[in-house]
Amino acid sequence: MPRxxxxxxxxxxxxxxxxxxxxxxxxxxxxxxxxGxxxxxxxPKRLLDLTLGSALLLLxxxxxxxxxxxxxxSRPAGGVFVRDYRTGLNGHPFLLSSLRTxxxxxxxxxxxxxxxRGHLSLVGPAPLAFxxxxxxxxxxxxxxxxxxxxxxxxxxxxxPWNEAPLLDQHYVEQHWIGLDLxxxxxxxxxxxxxVRVGSATQITGPTATLRRNKWVPSARAD
Length: 222
What we know:
Layout: H1 10-38, H2 44-74, E1 81-87, E2 93-99, H3 106-109, H4 112-117, E3 121-123, E4 146-148, H5 164-174, H6 177-204, E5 208-211, E6 214-217
Parallel strand pairs: 3-4
Antiparallel strand pairs: 1-2, 5-6
């Protein structure tokens, strides 16, 4: 008669399955340790930059791509992007790239990749040129420079001063996630007011008179 194999031992089967799970976890250990090292650095401000910055970049990518294409077709002197070194966190320099246009402040939106990479924050002091005396201020090196800040919305600030450096320093000394959200909420309105003021200046700046069916600019009244 053929020999029959004994029935499998359920305990041994469970032990074997547990051993395979432990082996998988052991292979994942380096990745888990790396995540554990990174987690303390993901403070609320950085999480806000990553989540909201990525969402804004995704939403504005078609507009930025169209603007870059239009600039490329016009062949501006110096290229489509303006690139220069700015002072970042801890005083480290980084190469800032912006679209060569200020229409609708697309130059600011084109800096969103720097927010995702960690060079910039959504809210912070203005990114100053690397090597400038003002950029060497110790308080500036404590945070990342930002796309917007108190200096951009200072017209609606309750503070008794309007100087941009003082507003930036006040932000660095008092910043928290609630202040960031407040500045972000006020930034679109501030940008729209600047666009309207710029348009009104262009319209009411040089006056024009109709002469022989042609618009001829006349002298501007002071």
